[in-house]
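[Automated response] Your request has been received and processed.

Submitted sequence:
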Amino acid sequence: MAERHDAIVIGSGIGGLTAAAFLAKGGVRPLVLEKHFLPGGNAMTFRRKKMFDFDVGFHYIGNCGPGGLFPTLLEQLGAADRVEFVPLNPDSFDAVHLPDLVFHMPVGWERYRQRLHEAFPQEARAIDRYIDFVMTAAGRPPAPGRQSLQEVLGKRASQCTLAEVFDALEISQPLRHLLGYLCGIYAAPPSKASAVMHARVVDHYMSGAYFVRGGGRPMVEALLSVIEDGGGEVRLRSKVERIIVEGGKAVGVELASGEELRAPIVLSNADAKRTFMEMVGEEHLSPAFAQRIKGYRMALPLFIIYMAMEVDPSELGVSSPHLHLFPEYDVEEQFAACYEGRLPDRPAVFMPIASLKDPLSENIAPRGYTNLQLVSVAPAQPEAWGASEGPASAPTRSGYRHTPPYLAAKREMEERMLRVVEEMMPGFIRRVVWQESASPLTQERFTLSSGGTSYGLEHTLDQSMAKRVPYQTEVPGLWMVGANTVFAHGYAGCMMGGRMVANMILQQSR
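Generated structure:
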C-alpha cells in the first residue's frame, strides 16, 4: 500500500471524494478508506424493494448553468459528460406553506422581489432593503440610491445574525418565516444563524435550482471514476481507528482490523471532533487547539422518512418539487425544543419529491409511483431516542435499534411529522408502499458524526468561515476537508473545499 498510494483520505463523503479526485488528477495517487459498505457518505443512494433509489442527503443544488460551479468542477476533472443536470421549475423550485399563505419561490432576484411585494404589499420597503442586503452580503453589486441596511445595523454583515436583520427591518412574523424558510438547510434558527451564510444559501439558488439525472449516484460514480483513472483506490468496510503520529507528523493510519497503512499525506473527511480527539489524540495537539475542538458546537441533526407511494407524480396536484410546511409561526420554539432534547410538537417538515425532479429515471421510481422524503430537524441527545449513548460510543454499536424505547421515539416523531402533512395537505400521503425512517442515531451509526448531525459545525457567528476547522491542520501531514471546514456543508461547500485542499496539497508537494 505504501508503494502504491501517495495520500490517504479518511471517509468517502462528497468532500473526500472531490479532494481525492483532484489529487488523482494532479498525479497524487489517493487511497480512500470508508467504513461503510457503500461510498458517498451523505451523497450515497440506497435501494428498496428493487424499485426505489433513495438519496440519503442530496436534494437540489444551484450554480449548474453554463460556467457554473458544478459544471466547472466536473470539467476540470474531465468528467463533465458523466453527470447531467436537470433544471427544476423556475417558477416554483420551492413552495413554502405557511399557516395562511403558500408562496412559490421563483428563480431570479427581481422575480423574487416582485413576488414578495405581491404577497406582502404593506412591507414593500422592508422587502427591498432585505433583498438589497442579502444580495450585497452574497457578493452581488449593491443597489444604487438606497440606504444600506448595514448602516442601520451599525456593524458589518458578517457580525449579524439573521434575526438581527429581521429586527432592524421591523418585519412581521409571517414575513420573517418566509424569508428565513431555508433555515432547515443549515439547521439553525434565525437567532443563531449567520446572516452572510444565509445570504449565500439563498443566492446559490437564484440563478436556478437543479437536480442530477438519476439522483445523487452519478456524481459519486463520476468522482470514483476519476480517482481510479488516476491510479487511486477506494476501499470499503475499512474503518480508520487511529491516525499514526510519529515525530509530531501524521504518517499513516491504523484500521480497526489492526492493519497499518502509511503515506506522507493524511486527509480526513471524517467528523472533526472524532478526527482530533479520538483518531489523533489530545496528546498530539496544542492545548489551545484541543480546547477549540472541544468547544465546537454541532448543528442539529435531522429525522428523515423515506417513502414511496403508488401514485403517479402527475396526480399529486403540486407543481413544486420541494414543499416546506410550517404549521405555526414558531420556528424558534421548534429549534429550542430540539436543543433541549425534546421532540418538537408540530415540526416544520421539508418534503423533497424526487419523482417530480426527475420523472424520467425509473431507478428513482417506476412509472405510476412517487418517491419522496419528509425531513425535520431533531434533537441530538441519545436520551431523546430512548438510548443512553450514541452508537459511535456504545459497545454494541447498533443494539439500540430494536429496543422498545427507540422504536417508540421513532414512531412518535414519524406520527408528528405525518400529522403536520395531513393537516396542511389533506390526503396528500396515500397508497404508501414503502416507509422507513432514519434518526440522528442512524446518521451517527453510518457516518460517526458527533450528535448525528449531517451539517457539521453549527452555523453561528463564532463558527463561520475562518473560525471553522482549517484545511491544513497544526499537525504536519494532516489535512481536513468536509462539512466542518471553511466552506461548510452541502455539495457546494464540500466540493469547493475538496478542490481547495487538493490544490493546497499539490502546490506543497511540487
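Summary generated for your ticket: The longest strand covers residues 302-309. The longest helix spans residues 404-424.
If you did not submit this request, please reply to this message.
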